[in-house]
Amino acid sequence: MFIEVYLLIQVALIPVMVKEFQLSLLEASLVATIPSLASLLMNLPSGFLADRFSTSHLLSASMLIEGVAAFLVSQTQDFHTLVIGVSLMRISSPIYHISGLSQLSRLAEPEQMSRSVGFHNALGNIGTAGGLVTLTVFLSTLGWRWTYLFWALPIIVWGFVVLRSPALKIARPEKPRYRRTGLGRYGLILTSSLVLFLIVISIREVGATGASTFMTTFFVNGRGLSDSAASLIYSLGPFVGILGSLGGGYLGERLGAQKALGWTVLGCAFSLLAVSVVTHAYLLALMFSFYSIFNNAVWSPMNTTVANLTPSSERGLSYSIYFFTEGLVASVTPTLAAGFIELTDIWYIFPISVAFLFGSLIALQFLPRRIVENNL
């Protein structure tokens, strides 16, 4: 919950940053791109750390990094130091997600993995929603910097609580002996099915990131809403995302991770297209809520698929490769999308994003229909 508090705040603040720091849209996109690159660079080392160190130590470190960085952001007075502070905050995300999901995949029974990830993601949505709600309150009162300050202390305190948790000190499975292929542990992970799945999520990520990064900008510049109204509608996303996360876990358990992912991506495409054509604020809020439900539902089947395709003994490195691929795409997409928007109009990012979502759905059909858990 705490690790996701700031997830969407900097994206929601893009229209505010443009006005306060006198930036172009391309310059403002750096608040999404550079932190994503910082998070990207931490993915692979986080995977090695997750397979070697205590989960409690890694989760505690992620909390402390996030809390201290948030305090620094609350004190910044220029855009460059803001980007540096947010980048430090994003470093905490891969440290948490890779170690946390690795441990979760070991604790949950295979048939309960999808449901467990659904509950995990739902708590993350509660944190994201709380962050956006406090942003809406502080934007109209004390200023956006107080949002970062408000959450910094409880996050730091929770870092010390996690450090002492006995529930996180679970023994890891023994490492298997590698075949003499020259690839070692990578040969167990980088199967043809996993590589194809990484292609699927890369295409999907282009579509989802391109639209989501500039959603509040579209609300303000494309539909004429105020900054606070745009932030309020945007904050609906994590709230309804709680339902999406739980629904994604339920679908994954009932239909299987692959079919559940297909249906949720399809829902994302149609609801995102609806967001681009409606004009009234209440319809925008409704269609964006539908999009958020489907967009949050994809995480459970995607995370479950990674666990199904990889051995439990190498789960940390497996998730790091998955997050590295996803983060690489997410880090470059906002700047490319901003350049495209400045050459055309902000509305055109929506049909392009929808096209990429359909492209990922097509690529998903080439994944083997039956994926059996590889619990080596």
Give a quick set of tags describing it.
376 residues, single chain, mainly alpha, Growth Hormone, Chain: A, disordered C terminus
Please explain how this structure is put together.
Mean pLDDT is 78; it is low at 372-376. The protein is globular, with a radius of gyration of 20 Å. Helices cover 77% and strands 0% of the residues. It has 376 residues and is mostly helical. It has one domain (2-172, 181-364): Growth Hormone, Chain: A. It is built from 17 helices and no strands.
Give the termini distance in whole angstroms. 31 Å
Q: Tally of extended strands?
A: 0
CATH superfamily: MFS general substrate transporter like domains
- Indicate the proportion of strand residues: under 5%
Level-2 CATH architecture? Up-down Bundle
Which radius of gyration do the C-alpha atoms yield? 20 Å
| Morphology | globular
CATH-defined fold name? Growth Hormone, Chain: A
